[in-house]
Amino acid sequence: QKARLVINEARSKGATEVVEFQAQEVLRAYNLPTPNTGLARSSDEAVAAADKIGYPVVLKIASPQISHKSDVGGVKVNLADAEAVRNAFFDITARAQRMRPEAYIAGCLVQEMAPKGCKEIIIGFKRDDQFGPLLMFGLGGIYVEILKDIAFRLAPLGRDDAKGIIREIKSYMLLKGVRGEQPVNFQAIEDILITMSELALDFPEIVEAEFNPVLVNAEKAVVADVRITLS
Ligand code: ADP
Ligand code: MG
């Protein structure tokens, strides 16, 4: 219901992308794990949000026109104290304004930092006119373009499909852990895959969605970045 409201609102504005802060609402409505996040319109608000969330935090540019945030230097991780947050806020917003003068800058998202040692994976789907939603799973972050180690499955995904798509990638062993590392929480990844398949079937107007990265360790998985594209 909440998810429907968010999608409808984005569409009524004629947007083809749901802004990140709103997209997180959609994820929460589906019980998907998202990091604690606040929207700050000033450096004071950013510090207040970080104090509340607890350090270290991540700051990300918040602008409906900027969806690839790192491209404009729009993400700073591991900010350890109020001063670092304040500086990052000025830095990120000033740089974004300079690089994208046409963009409306709402401020910055202040986000809980995922624990060290998480692995980055990518979970997404693209809607095929003929076959419907095609789910995608792979190693995320900087590796996804280089390794092209991605597996696909058509929706709907059940538990066995989710297990299967995870095992299909070549980097599966990395997720199982090497040299005495603990395996990641596979069930948490399966849950996200299955839920994304449900989301894809519930909202035909979503043509594409991408969680990149999902940060996962032995305990849990969290969706640290989300892009939802509408028709
Ligand atoms: P974009 O993809 O728009 O450039 P992201 O939100 O994906 O921006 O952030 C870029 C990178 O920063 C991620 O791939 C991840 O490595 C790191 N990152 C983002 N959010 C977090 C977080 N909450 N905790 C830890 N690392 C993060
Ligand atoms: Mg990303």
The largest sheet, given as strand count, sense and whether it forms a barrel, is: 7 strands, antiparallel
Would you tell me the structural class of the helices and strands? alpha+beta
How many angstroms separate the termini? 20 Å
Provide the β-strand percentage band: 25-35%
Q: How many DSSP-defined strands?
A: 11
Helix content: 25-40%
Specify the CATH class of the largest domain.
Alpha Beta
How large is the count of helical segments? Answer: 8
CATH homologous superfamily designation of the largest domain: ATP-grasp fold, B domain
SSE topology string: HEHEHEEHEEEHEHHHEEE
Question: What is the second-level CATH architecture of the largest domain?
Answer: 2-Layer Sandwich
The averaged pLDDT comes out at: 96
Spans of at least 5 consecutive residues with low confidence: none
Show the helix and strand layout:
Elements: H1 2-12, E1 17-18, H2 20-29, E2 37-40, H3 43-53, E3 57-62, E4 75-79, H4 82-99, E5 107-112, E6 119-128, E7 132-139, H5 143-147, E8 150-154, H6 159-168, H7 172-176, H8 186-202, E9 206-216, E10 221-223, E11 226-230
Antiparallel strand pairs: 1-11, 2-5, 3-4, 3-5, 6-7, 6-9, 7-8, 9-10, 9-11
Magnesium ion binds at residues 212, 225.
